[in-house]
Amino acid sequence: MNASNDKTSAHATDEPVLVASGLRKTYRMGRVPVQVLKDASIEIRSGEWVAILGASGSGKSTLLHLLGGLDRPDPDGGMIRFEGRRVSDFGGAELNGYRNRSVGFVFQFYHLLPELSVLENAMLPCLVPNRWFSATLPLLAALIGGGVGAVVGSTFGVDILPTADAPTPSKIALLALTCGVLGAAIGVVIFQLGQILAERTRLRHGPQAANSRHTLEEFGLGHRLRHRPSQLSGGERQRTAIARALASEPSILMADEPTGNLDATTGREILDLLKKRHDAGLTIVMVTHDPTVAEYADRVVQLEDGRVVESTV
Amino acid sequence: MYQPLLANRYLRSRIIPLIAVAAVALCVGLVIIVVSVMSGFLDMLLNSGRTLMGDVIIRYADPGIPHYDLLIEEIESRPEALAATPVVESFGLLKLPYGNRTEGVQVWGIEPASFGQVVDFKDSLVWTEAPPEVRKFADEMNGLEIPVFEKLPRLDPESDDDDPGVILGVEIDSAAKVRRMDGSYEVKAPAFWMPFRDVEITLIPISTSGALEKPDNRRFDVTNEFQSGVYQIDSRRAMIGLETGQRMLGLEAAPIYDTRLLDETGELERIGTYPARVQMILVRAADGVSPEQLRDSVNLAYSAFAAKIDDEGAMTIRPPDEAFVGIRTWREQLRDLIGPVEKERELMRILFSIVYLVCAGLVLSIFWSIVHEKTRDIGILRAIGASRPGVLGVFLAYGLVIGLVGAFLGALLGWSVVVNINSIHEAMGEPAPDWTWITAFALAAVMLLTAIHAGLRGGMLRTLLSIVGALILAGVGTALVLHRGFLMWDPAVYYFNSIPNQVDWSSAILTMAGAIVFSVLGAAIPAAKAADTDPVKALRYE
Ligand SMILES: Nc1ncnc2c1ncn2[C@@H]1O[C@H](COP(=O)(O)OP(=O)(O)O)[C@@H](O)[C@H]1O
Ligand SMILES: [Mg+2]
User: Contact, B126 vs B225, CB < 8 A?
Assistant: First the structure.
């Protein structure tokens, strides 16, 4: 157990990818402020596996959420640098990109989408980035549909107006508008249907699908690709979650008690799997309360009283 | 792009979207049915009003419009006008042949030939032949002459010995006949069948200076009866010949004498002619010309006509100034009749927008619970880098599909009910056939057995649902047994022979668009709220 510092991986460099210094995070329980992180600093070097060890409730998850960009520290509560850029300064799009590509997150409770299959869950990070057309094309479909509807409405509006209604310009305009709304709705739905059909092959056989499928096969889930998360065991779900975290080939994998919900054997399988990836060069930050789990890491730090201290264990 | 994928999965993987679709469809269908029937009713009312008025009415009360034949010529020379006809109008007293009844009526003096070109006059005549009960009566009375109904009834007498003719509104005499369900009439008292009888009409002429003159009373042969479908007209109007009317009202052409100059013979010297006048000219539009276009054209025609008469010389009687002559479309003219029905329909629309809002609230709360349940998913999506608008897109697509499907199903529902409303109504008018309640009770019994079976095996949900189903079916069966037929729409009371069965597509489209907008909003608002919360908070939700 005291050998953890000797296990420093060959891949670890002196170059820190992620630097956090002086992090403070306060939660408010009603009117009582609870300062969970007081002055937490940590450096993660590329290629190393760091375990953050701490008692339950010591703020490990909070720290990891800050590092992963899922939450922000207190105002003036320290700073986080990723590859030299300040994460706390990121705008919405940059932050989304950071969450999506720079880090991969593994939660204790898996957090898979129940309506998607294992394969779809695993490749989800590749699907979420906004591309230029993700908003433009539906909008275009709405505009075209709306335009057609409005033209149809203003052309045939007079015919469908009851005799009792004088065909005033405002009534025709209202009709054109409502036909436009209908047309836009139809346009968008047709577009979405088309997209579902068009993406069906891409979702099953595109390069990203192939990539995720490969990962899942490596994790022993090759026969489970089309199953729903509810049909999987805990270990299988966590392996799916790890496959998802790796889908966009992030610089750092962040795992929050990845084995916390699993029995010892399954937990070990998960850790072995991470180790295999780590040996292939993956940087890992792992949070755990369990010293035996922390043993897998190159370096163990402890979270005590809201501060990070180098492990003396 | 994950939005269509995820929206599609959400839509297919639970029962709540089906409930939401059903709610939207029911609301849309309900509004379409009611508004369509109301609009159809208004349309029928208006069409029958138009049948009696033409498209545009020129009106100038006493002393009327002189040289109207020239005005008609001027109007008919315009392409927008198909035909025009002169009408005199006055209030009069009508003495019916029985019960010493005297009614106040509105008397129209018409020229049947041109009147028939402007309005659907022939179709509004009730009698084309004597009904069987009348013929039987005539046989019994041997030798009672049965009148022959001509397509164009003669109203002005050929000679002074003949009585002039009158066509009465069908509701004026309401004692001798009864309206049947199909809208035709059964003559209850053939002796008082109007075409056998004479009536007396008294009119009071008004002098050119506006004073009342000596009332004129004449006997008229009842030539036929007419039915416009508008009770207010059918119960009040009597139509006589134009010339007869003009003569009785002092509107016929008359010589003008100079009262200051008596010639040697002691007679007044005639210095001109006061032309005949009418108070109304009805104009029918050519095909494809709107009443409003025709009105504008008639306005121009009137100006041209007035200018022409002005050139004729000092002694001519000039037509009234254009500013005082009412030139209106039938819609404007029937304002007082249309107004209440239109108001009623607007009121219905307002009431139904409240129903609408309730439906919107329903849709909103359904979506709220659906989206609330998805807060964790939204947190996950945000944690792996989905943008706020991107997450919103999932739920926009979700609400859009529910709204669109619901709107179209609702339109289908509304359409099928409205189109079949008369058969549905008829079926409701009959006692329920035996097989319906027998089936209902049989199904109730089956449900009850299912409930007992499920209860013994311990399935709570199935027991409960089966009991509820059995109770409902038993209730339906009882209602069917007790149902003895009931007509809401009695043609003897309401004027039209059938319930309007045309869908008012303009309102339908408005309703559908509204349903879609509310569905999208209902899904988008809670989704936007969830997208705005930090992923960590959203993930803590459990
Ligand atoms: N959103 C929150 N609001 C209030 N208190 C919180 C919130 N999140 C975490 N905490 C509190 O902060 C402390 C640290 O939580 P956490 O980081 O989850 O601990 P760990 O992961 O080490 O068990 C706990 O006492 C927890 O109750
Ligand atoms: Mg934790």
Answer: yes
pLDDT, position A6? 43
Write down the pLDDT at residue A182: 92
Judge whether B49 and B237 are in contact, CB under 8 Å: no
* C-alpha R_g of chain A: 26
Whether pLDDT at B468 is above 90: yes
Q: Which domains are present in chain A?
A: 16-115+231-312 (3.40.50.300), 133-205 (no CATH)
Integer distance in angstroms from the first to the last C-alpha of chain B? 27
Mean pLDDT of B123-149: 80
Can you say how many angstroms the Cα of residue A34 is from the centroid of all Cα atoms in its chain?
27
For residue B63, cis peptide bond before it (omega within 30 degrees of 0): yes
Instruction: List C-alpha distances in Å: A251 to A98, A110, A125, A284, B113.
Output: 10, 20, 14, 9, 95
In 10 A of CB B269, how many CB atoms?
A: 13
| B16-28 average pLDDT score | 87
Please name which ligand lies nearest the alpha carbon of A58.
1
Disruptive mutation site among A70, A106, A193 for chain B (greatest number of B CBs within 10 Å): A70
Structure tokens at A45: 């070097």
pTM reported for the whole predicted model: 0.73
Which residue, among B313, B516, B300, has the nearest Cα to B397 in the 3D structure? B516
Q: What is the 3-state secondary structure (H, E, C) of B220-271?
A: EEEEEEECCCCHHHHCCEEEEEHHHHHHHHCCCCEEEEEEEEECCCCCEEEE
Q: Is the minimum distance from the CB of A27 to ligand 1 under 6 angstroms? A: yes
Quick one: A271 exposed, middle or buried, by C-beta within 10 A (0-12, 13-18, 19+)?
buried
Question: Please, where are the H alpha helices in B374-504?
Answer: 375-383, 388-419, 421-429, 434-457, 460-482
Closest partner residue to A162 (CB to CB) among B400, B404, B504 is B504
User: In B, which residues are within 8 Å of A175 by CB distance?
Assistant: 506, 509-510
- What does the pLDDT look like over B223-235, one tens digit per residue? 888 887 777 788 8
Residue B493 has pLDDT above 60, yes or no: no
Contact residues for A182 (Cβ-Cβ < 8 A; gap 6+) = A149, B407, B509, B512, B513, B516
Model pLDDT for residues A188-214, shown as the tens digit of each residue:
999 988 888 887 887 788 888 889 999
